Amino acid sequence: MLALAVSVISCADLIDGPFHRRDHDDDHDTIHTDTTGNGNNDSTVCFSRDVLPILITNCAMAKCHDEASHKDGVVLTSYTSAMHLVTPGSTSKSKLYEVITETDPEDVMPPLPRTLSKEQINLIARWIREGAHDGTCTEDSLCDTTNITLDSDVGPILAKWCICCHGPVDPGAGINLTIRSVVEAESRSGRLMRSITHDPSVARMPPSGPKLDDCSIKKIEVWIQQGFR
User: Fold this and answer.
1) From CA 64, how far away is CA 110, in angstroms rounded?
2) At 52, is the secondary structure helix, strand, or coil?
3) Mean pLDDT of 214-229
4) In the prediction, which pLDDT does 220 show?
5) Domain ranges across the chain
6) Residue 60: CB atoms within 10 Å
7) pLDDT value at position 71?
8) What Å distances lie between residue 80 and 29, 53, 97, 104, 124, CA to CA?
9) How many CB atoms lie within 10 A of CB 107?
C-alpha cells in the first residue's frame, strides 16, 4: 500500500512520457510517449480517437458516469451518450464544455483532484466547434504495423487508455503500466491482450465503454509477437 504522503497526480500529468526504463537499459531505450496527433496530416479531431479516450478515462469511471453508475443520469461512454451534453458548433451552449471549464471546485468535472489538461480541454473544444462529428478516423482505414515499438506505438496507446487507472500512484490491481518490465510481464502472461479485447476471463480494460480500436489492438499484438521492441 502506498504511503499517504504520496502527492496527488492527475492523468494529465502522465500523458507526456510516463514510462520508466528497466534496469540496465541504455538511455536511448527510455520511452517518451506522445498521444497528440495521429501520425499523418489529418488535423480534424476524431471523436473515437481523440475525444472518447478523454471521457472514458476521466469521466466514465465507477461511481461517476459509466453505464452502471450513470451519476445524475449522465453516461459518457459513447458518442451517442456524449451528444446529450453537446451542441455541435457551440462551446457556449454545450454542457460538456461548461463543466470541464467550470472554475468552482465544487462543480468542475472531473471532480478534483482529477483534472483535464489544457490540451485535452482544447481538443474537446475543437471537436465541438468543428461540428462534434462522429466520422471515420483516418487510421480506421490505414493501420501501419511495421516497426512497432513501445516508445512510438504501444506507449502512447497505454498512456491514452490505461495509465489513469494503472499509473504510478495507487495503480489498479497493483499493475503499474508506466514501467516497461510490468508491461512486458502483463503481455507475456496474456493478460494484457485478454484485457483489451474484453475477454470475460479477466477484468476488461478500459473498464467502461468500447474496446480499443482495432488498429491499436493490432499494434499491441504485433509488438508482443515481435518480442517487445
Assistant:
1) 9
2) helix
3) 94
4) 96
5) 11-34+139-225, 47-129
6) 26
7) 61
8) 41, 15, 16, 28, 15
9) 10
**How distant is the alpha carbon of residue 130 from its chain centre?**
22
Angle among Cα 133, 137, 141 to the nearest 5 degrees reads: 145
Look up residue 225 and give its three cell numbers: 509477437
Element (H, E) at 221: helix 214-225
Q: Residue 49: which region, alpha, beta or left (left: phi > 0; alpha: psi -120 to 50)?
A: alpha
pLDDT at 2: 31
Q: Would you call 20 helix, strand, or coil by DSSP? A: strand
CA distance to 26, 136, 227, per residue, from 56 (Å): 35, 19, 30
Query: 225 — alpha (psi -120 to 50), left (phi > 0) or beta?
Result: alpha
Contact 87, 131 (CB under 8 A): no
Task: Give 23-33 pLDDT, tens digit per residue.
Answer: 333 333 333 34
Residue 148: φ, ψ to 5°: -70, 130
Alpha carbons 46 and 59: distance in angstroms, whole number: 18
- Cell triple for residue 148? 512497432
**DSSP codes, 169-181:** SS-GGG--TTBHH
Cα–Cα dist 80/153, whole Å:
29
CB-based contacts of 111, cutoff 8 Å, min separation 6: none
pLDDT tens, residue by residue, 38-53:
444 446 888 988 998 8
**Quick one: pLDDT at residue 218?**
95
Report residue 169 as a C-alpha cell.
Answer: 500512484
pTM (predicted TM-score): 0.66
